[in-house]
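job 3f2a | input accepted
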Amino acid sequence: MKNYENKIYEYYNSVSNKSSDVNISRKLFFKEIILKHFPKDKSINICELGAGNGLFQATLYELGYSNSLGIDTSKEQVALAKQLNLNVEEDNIYNFINKSIENNIKYDVIIAIDVFEHFDKEDLFDLISKLYMILNNDGIVVSHQPNAQSPFFGNIRYGDFTHYNAFTSTSIGQIYLANDFNYVKSYEDKPVRHTMKSKIRYILWEYFIRKIYCFLLTVETGSCRGKIFSQNFLTIAYKGQK
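job 3f2a | predicted structure (242 res):
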């Protein structure tokens, strides 16, 4: 890890200007991910890479998932999670994965929310190959990453000095499938409908803004089928059959 990365990650929460309003909407987004994509068995073995202040862990706990561990390299973020009695430990992602491989520990779900963009291409390819190794046969990786196809992708790609990459649903699929994952599906981020304002945002996005983007792309290429336009997008990678 480079020197500037160490300095930023150590106090990541403070230098990234995290707000409570963002946390509220983000927690609702996490809940939606869990309810839609996670196995219903609440005893499954879960690990979260880059768990930050433990918001995803807290959401899992509230929904009844009791066997989950988060890891993060930021002392400040881990301390915030510990204050809430969340199961988040300070560790380097590679150290954690290598220990899991050495001890033959397998997971049913691996979470990597806004993590992959912090790795260069070669390191990310290696990371995903190792995630495959520590997944159970029917396990999944849940990742969330910047979308290079969004008209505003630069807001995410360059909004954090530690970011290396942005992706499309095609390129993230290439990485997973080249590392023997069986099936990959990506989903557009849409406003989570929980207030009147968010419901209006959803309607504007789904029925107006998205259609404009799709129209413009269709004019150039002839189609916008399967394209994702939000600044970030979600991907579920299946080791076994979906």
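job 3f2a | The two ends are 35 Å apart (CA to CA).
job 3f2a | closed
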